[in-house]
Design brief:
There is one protein chain. The chain has 401 residues and is an alpha+beta fold. Helix content is 36%, strand content 25%. It has three domains: 2-43 and 92-164 and 251-317, 3-Layer(bba) Sandwich (FAD/NAD(P)-binding domain); 60-88 and 166-246, D-Amino Acid Oxidase, Chain A, domain 2 (2-Layer Sandwich), CATH 3.30.9.10; 321-395, no CATH class. Strands 1, 2, 8, 9, 10, 11, 18 and 19 form an eight-stranded mixed β-sheet that branches. The protein binds flavin-adenine dinucleotide (FAD). Flavin-adenine dinucleotide binds next to α1, β3, β12, β15 and β17.
């Protein structure tokens, strides 16, 4: 009998496993792949705050970013730059491996090649059913369970927690670049409908080319890679294409008796950028705090564990909802409208004034979104769009006090 079973050895699952093991709990992690990070399509860009929080080895850092070029559909671009590094590009499979290794060192037990198929609530514990070696069913018992299985929705749904229905779909490949020295972001309906594509320098000549979009990302990534090859921006594709999805809205309920949901499985991801590592870890921290209290008192009822959702909502709910409506606004625009807004931003130097604002951070986007739409020159042209998401955002602007 374990204290906690964690389903998924991704970054949030292994982080929670390490913290709970550090507190002295008997923790078991069940992971369907043979090793951590095997199938990840994630770019691995995180902020300094996140880097410090994860306490990771700097050898995982492939590059730092203090500037970026953002391309409009027309091909025009604006460059944003700050003095200090704003983001760190990590060896992402390496991050999953390291987090799992750190958790193991603290005493957590890991079972790989063990996909979980069902969670059963018993009277005083939870039984987790998994397919183990040679397709045999293995049963694991624990006082409680954390679902940290990423964008896979089945387990949370079968636990009666509902289902996330809105996703963006992503794909990425490793590439060799010619002279890409800063992060490049490409927008446009033919490039990445509803989202954006990127080329990220990952140290030396290495890079990561990828995108998030609505629908199937494969044809868009193929087209992007072809274009970058023709432009001689990249010279070769050095890996398979990896695919993944990100939830755009949180799961409505992230707890029940003896059970919590964290990370992508709970929808703790920024719908503006698709970044989920930082928010997932913030929520994993809350999950660990609550479980520690509840395991100590022996009260693991849905009622007691609902505190987890209250706490993470307090941290992120407003932020995620503003980000979501900003995403909705953006994905409703056609290329002409994006170009128009882009031109206004450049003409009035809105990006420059936002860059000097203390509100702009790599992880928290809501303030900068609201600051941008408050901008007079932008407001005039946004008025014409009369979009419902915009009305939602405008209603959230608080007067400066
Ligand atoms: C293309 C793309 C690019 C991205 N780039 C960034 C970025 O630059 N920065 C950033 O912060 N975020 C990025 N993200 C998001 C980020 O990858 C996720 O938010 C983050 O990985 C979430 O961590 P997690 O632990 O919740 O889930 P995951 O990392 O998905 O881990 C879940 C684990 O659970 C395992 N699993 C699933 N089902 C089962 C099961 N039934 N039984 C056992 N194990 C199971 C999986 O194999 C996996 O190992 C990106 C996402 C995509 C798709």
């Amino acid at each position: 009998m374990y204290d906690v079973i964690i389903i998924g050895a991704g970054v949030t699952g292994s982080y929670a496993a390490g913290e709970l093991a550090r507190l002295g709990y008997h923790v078991c992690v069940l992971e369907k792949q043979q090793q951590p990070g095997l199938k990840t399509s994630c770019t691995g860009i995180i902020s300094r705050e996140c880097l410090e929080m994860l306490e990771i080895d700097h050898s995982l850092i492939q590059n730092q970013a203090r500037s970026a070029r953002i391309f409009a559909p027309s091909g025009k671009y604006l460059r944003i730059e700050r003095e200090d590094a704003q983001a760190y590009i990590l060896d992402r499979p390496g991050l999953d491996r390291l987090m799992a290794h750190k958790a193991q060192q603290k005493g957590a037990e890991f079972h790989f090649s063990t996909p979980v198929t069902a969670i059963r609530h018993e009277n005083r514990h939870v039984t987790v059913e998994a397919t183990a070696i040679q397709s045999e069913t293995a049963l694991f018992k624990a006082r409680c369970v954390i679902i940290a299985c990423g964008a896979a929705v089945g387990l949370a749904q079968s636990a009666g927690l509902g289902r996330i229905r809105e996703f963006a779909h992503g794909a990425q490949a490793q590439v060799e670049c010619t002279d890409v020295s800063e992060v490049e972001i490409y927008s446009g309906i033919t490039t990445a409908p509803g989202f954006f594509a990127w080329l990220v320098p990952a140290g030396g000549k290495q890079g990561k080319a990828g995108l998030l979009c609505r629908g199937n990302p494969r044809p868009y990534l193929t087209a992007l890679l072809d274009r970058l090859l023709k432009q001689n921006r990249i010279t070769s594709i050095t890996s398979d294409i990896r695919y993944g999805s990100i939830p755009l809205k949180p799961l409505s309920r992230t707890y029940s008796d003896r059970l919590l949901v964290i990370g992508d499985a709970a929808g703790q991801v920024k719908p503006t950028s698709g970044g989920g590592i930082y928010f997932g870890i913030l929520c994993a921290q809350q999950a660990v705090l609550i479980l520690d209290e509840c395991l100590k008192s022996g009260e693991l009822s849905s009622d007691k564990l609902s505190q987890y959702q209250k706490r993470w909502h307090k941290l992120l709910k407003r932020e995620l909802s503003i980000d979501y409506w900003a995403y909705r606004f953006y994905q409703g625009l056609d290329d002409k409208q994006v170009d128009h807004i882009f031109n206004i931003i450049v003409k009035h130097g809105i990006h420059e004034s936002l860059l000097t604002s203390p509100d702009i951070t790599f992880d928290w986007h809501s303030m900068v979104i609201l600051d941008a739409i408050r901008h007079r020159s932008l407001q005039r042209s946004l008025e014409k769009l009369k979009a419902a998401p915009l009305r939602f955002l405008e209603a959230r602007i608080r007067p400066r006090g």
